[in-house]
């Protein structure tokens, strides 16, 4: 994803139509950020995305095994 590293009001997730939705004040879009700045776009590291995808796959495999075990145990009841 795209991440704009220029930290100004217009790149904050809380900025909309010249106003800060958190502080409810009018702002200069190119003005300096406040401590509550939240970027609109976050950079996704491809390694961390791969790691998350791999972890998700492992968890899905574990879930499948557990569900099979539950079905097997239910047949014995």
Descriptive overview:
There is one protein chain. The chain is mainly α. It folds into two domains: 43 residues, no CATH class; 33 residues. 39% of the residues lie in helices and 8% in strands. The chain is built from one helix and three strands. A hairpin with a 4-residue loop joins β2 and β3. The protein is elongated and about 70 Å long.
Write the layout of secondary structure elements.
Blueprint: E1 15-16, E2 19-20, E3 25-26, H1 46-75
Spatial ordering of strands, largest sheet: 1-2-3
Reported for the largest beta sheet, the result is:
3 strands, antiparallel
Termini separation comes to 51 Å
What is the CA-atom radius of gyration, in angstroms? 23 Å
Task: List low-pLDDT spans.
Answer: none
Instruction: Tally the structural domains.
Output: 2
Which overall shape is indicated by the principal axes computed on the Cα atoms?
A: elongated
Q: In summary, what is this structure?
A:
By secondary structure, the protein is mainly α. The chain has one helix and three strands, in the order βββα. It folds into two domains: about 1-45, no CATH class; about 45-75.
Please give a handful of descriptors for the protein shown:
mainly alpha, 8% strand, 3 strands, 77 residues, 2 domains
